[in-house]
Amino acid sequence: MAGRPRVGVLALQGDVREHVALLERLGAEVRRVRRPGEVDEIDGLVLPGGESSVIDKLSRSFGLQEPLRARIRSGMPVYGTCAGLILLADTVLDGLAGQQSFGGMDVAVRRNAFGRQTESFEIALDVPVLGPAPVHATFIRAPIVDRVGPGVDVLASLPDGAVVAVEQGALLGTSFHPEMDGEPRFHARFLDRVRAFVGA
Ligand code: GLN
What we know:
Layout: E1 6-10, H1 16-25, E2 29-33, E3 45-47, H2 52-61, H3 65-73, E4 78-81, H4 83-88, E5 89-93, E6 105-110, E7 120-125, E8 135-140, E9 144-148, E10 153-157, E11 163-168, E12 171-174, H5 185-198
Parallel strand pairs: 1-2, 1-3, 3-4, 4-12, 5-6
Antiparallel strand pairs: 6-9, 7-8, 10-11, 11-12
The structure holds glutamine.
């Protein structure tokens, strides 16, 4: 099926609007996902930045956790930024008591890894798979990837070696927020995965 990729943005909390705008600019047909039935109407999903513990709780009370886990297991492409990366991680470090994730990616991600001194910062980041031009990366109370499983590719690290962008099959995660800087290349990569997933 050629045509516009049909993707969702999990719209329980966080920077939903920025993702929707960028995905639409890239030609996708975008739905805001809030109800379990909507999980079956998409071929890819973005998990936005925000507060992972809040998104986790809301997803459980709205009955979204199980349907989302099932779609992720079935190979649907997902891109998580910041809190979204935390939600994609099989293991969450420094989570709130009882905090859960959807999982799917064989990584351990540490919340708020930069501490109070460094609430937010911006950096030019090399991401070789996206080409030679660096990514302008904005980190806001950001997580880092503490442990990377054998099937996971590291796409970018900070100068001190902290891993901040990872990919495992159709799952992509970044500690930072390309959607806030109008950086389209991660979302374009995600949409390529979606097109491959539907066999377009
Ligand atoms: N600190 C947030 C969390 O734990 C993530 C911050 C963000 O998404 N910008 O979920």
